[in-house]
Amino acid sequence: MTDGRQEANAEPQLEVHVLDMRPDYPEHRIILPVGRLLSAVARVDRSVLAGQWEIWTAWGCHGEHACAIEDQMDEADVEPLRVTGPEFFGPFMADPEVYFEFLVMRRISPDPEVVLGVFDSSWLFLRAGASLVRAVAAQFEEVRFTTDLGDFRRWF
To answer: pTM of the entire structure?
Structure first.
């Protein structure tokens, strides 16, 4: 794991913030649910979602699956909570009403590091190798890129 540091031969990391809004709520500015980001990642490379992930923070749940995760984290007072990618991500990808208002996850295996989630209902984000990030970002309309990567844990 890099924890924000680049390995000598690794592809440079990049982060994208997706600012697209949900079209089904035109009277409000509601960002897309995290399932849309996960689906975009899967269209580029489904293997990115495989493996073990850590949930560093998750709150503002909507939907049974999301609320069960939030409850599990609250009850066990566990951070980070470990989950397996495909089983965890499926309900988010299948139902746009299953989401978090704030979510930070990091893939811990296999390498390379991938961090994704939702920042305070303001944007979706993906941090990974630049080629993956650019391919995922191309599926959205309003994006901004950053190379100011620092430690992802600074957000919470």
So the answer is: 0.86
